[in-house]
Amino acid sequence: DTVYDLQGNLKSALVTAFLKSKNKVGFSYASIPEKWGLFPLNKFIHVDLHLPIVEQYLLILGINQFNCDEDKMTPSVDKKGIYITIGSRWENKKVSLSDWIMILKFLKEKNKEPIYLLYFSSDEEKQVDKLISLEPNLIKFPKASFLEIQKAFIQAKGVIGVDSGLIHLASLLDVKTFTFFGPSSAKVYQPSNGKSYQGCCSEKIKFIKRCPYLRTCPHGACLKKIEMKGLLDSIQTVFNKAE
């Protein structure tokens, strides 16, 4: 019976503390995101913070390689589409609606596959509905379970979104990705089989893994002034490789 804390923050520590397990494994003092995350642990794993985040997690779990048995998964959609995950609870991880419209318009012009928009909260659903009203022929993906999304991703042409668990799920399924990073480092979190855009901090804050003001930044402007020159072509190269 072992509990693995891959988040290493105060919230995950509270959950870990209440779980009945003899072994509670997580990041070491030098590598944990928040020091509060240390208190319920009794086994500490040191990881290089410069490693891609998936490799960091696998080191904590003691796994050398991730294998996905596709034979046990039946895709839940009939078409090989492009999936967009626009949402985040943190303002500094959000891309502006106007920038999403430019990106979606470009993708529609360059790709014949359907474009699905995913959402996980009422606020995200409102954003999806707004985008569809402004840019027709986009498809609102029905609110689905994690497993259903996993099945859909198996045959996806690619996944675009802000830094989130779904981007890393796509990467583990060997799906091409393009990720927008704001208060987290693309050097660490970018999936190995994808590309990314790193937002610019208006306050010039430097960090290795995650911005220390991720939850408290009063500006939240990391991804609010995206330079579109060259970005759209960079996104499309990901999908050209997926064909």
Give the full name of the CATH homologous superfamily of the largest domain: Glycogen Phosphorylase B
Kindly state the number of beta strands: 9
**CATH class label of the largest domain:** Alpha Beta
List the total number of helices: 8
What does it look like?
It is a single chain. With 243 residues, the chain is α/β, with parallel strands linked by helices. The chain folds into 2 domains: 60 residues, no CATH class; 167 residues, Rossmann fold (3-Layer(aba) Sandwich). The strands form 2 sheets. The chain has a 6-stranded parallel beta sheet with strand order 6-5-4-7-8-9, with helices on both faces. A 3-stranded parallel beta sheet has the order 1-2-3. Strand 5, helix 4 and strand 6 form a beta-alpha-beta unit. The longest helix has 14 residues. The N and C termini lie far apart (43 Å).
Keywords:
single chain; 243 residues; alpha/beta; Rossmann fold; 2 domains; 6-stranded parallel sheet; 3-stranded parallel sheet; 9 strands; 32% helix; globular
Spell out the blueprint of helices and strands.
Blueprint: E1 2-4, H1 10-18, E2 23-27, E3 43-45, H2 53-61, E4 82-85, H3 97-110, E5 115-118, H4 122-134, E6 139-140, H5 146-154, E7 158-162, H6 165-172, E8 177-181, H7 186-189, E9 194-198, H8 231-242
Parallel strand pairs: 1-2, 2-3, 4-5, 4-7, 5-6, 7-8, 8-9
Question: What can be said about this structure in brief?
Answer:
The protein has 8 helices and 9 strands. With 243 residues, the chain is an alpha/beta fold. The strands form 2 sheets. Strands 6-5-4-7-8-9 form a 6-stranded parallel sheet, sandwiched between helices.
